[in-house]
Amino acid sequence: MATLALLAGTARADLTLGLLAGKNEGDVVADWQPVANDLAKALGQPVKVVAVKDDAELLRRFASKEIQIARANTGTALSLIEAGNGEIFARLALTGGVADYRSLLLVRNDGPADFDALLRDKQRWRLATGATSSTAGYLIPAYLAFAKRNVLPEAFFREVKSGNAEDNFRALADRRVDVAVCNSDDFDKLRETYPRDVRQMRVLWQSPSFSYDPLVYRKDLPAATRTAVARFFLDYGRKGANTAQEKTRLYYADQLSGFLSSSNRQLREVTDLQLYFDLFKLNLAKQTDAERTASEKQLYRRYNQLVAVLGGPK
Is Signal included in the keywords of this UniProt record (predicted)? Predict the structure, then answer.
């Protein structure tokens, strides 16, 4: 509490909490504003909330110091860490203490019977997927569902659209695509919002479990601010006189139960997938042997650098 009191007396600059939105940006801001207001009271300085659908926009605003604290997916968080200006301090836990998710491929009930049936018809189906910087929305299904079966989604599907989880869901429900990438967390929320549409869908494929979204703050924030921010999130909804009210705010923010301590190490599960998928795409590229060797060395060089930044191979 002494740290928070010191901050209240000395630091008055605005902080901005940036959120990667899986639904309408205005709704996300409204849902998170009560939590941000509590953070502002704890720090003694204004806290603004912004929400963006685009990973690149979150990266740009974080790099330009418009955002000091970010709720990102693991792929975007990896880019923030690699750029050298971000550090993971916590990760989200859902209602019931669930701290992981699965990537999903959704189809309508009248769609392909199973994944093998999907793969038998190249250039027949249309896909709605996430941005290439998204782990759950792109990397996990692109590698684990498709590349491991020697399939590149962009070459296999007749049409590929890009959007967030709700965009993809709506495209499938409206018959603008035949397959939609989603994740288990967003699908549960969409089930509450669109129960009739969900009844017309089924899960065609699901991934193994992956750690849920991290919180990242800028490394150049004052040390006392970083400590206070981390303590606020880790204690929120768990300690203090307002626990019940905070739990309600967490639920309405994103159906959360709280936040768990984390570090850059969380992203190690992503770096391996990135390398394997990049090597797969490299094998499909039209290059000379010398060019392919040089590209492969570059991929392994980046991989080794990332592993070192994230705490080593084990």
Answer: yes
Report mean pLDDT in 10-residue bins for the chain, 314 residues: 42 81 86 96 95 89 95 89 93 85 97 96 96 90 96 96 94 98 93 96 96 93 96 94 94 91 91 93 89 94 91 74
Nearest Cα to Cα of residue 135 among 86, 207, 64: 207
| Measured distance CA(68)–CA(216) in Å, rounded | 8
Distance CA 212, CA 116 (A): 29
Q: Describe the strand order of the beta sheet including 126-129 as a list of residue ranges.
A: 159-162, 126-129, 179-183, 103-108, 201-206
What's domain 2-99+212-262's architecture? 3-Layer(aba) Sandwich (3.40)
- Four-CA torsion 252, 192, 58, 247, nearest 10 degrees: 20
Q: CA-to-CA distance for 134 and 270, rounded, in angstroms?
A: 11
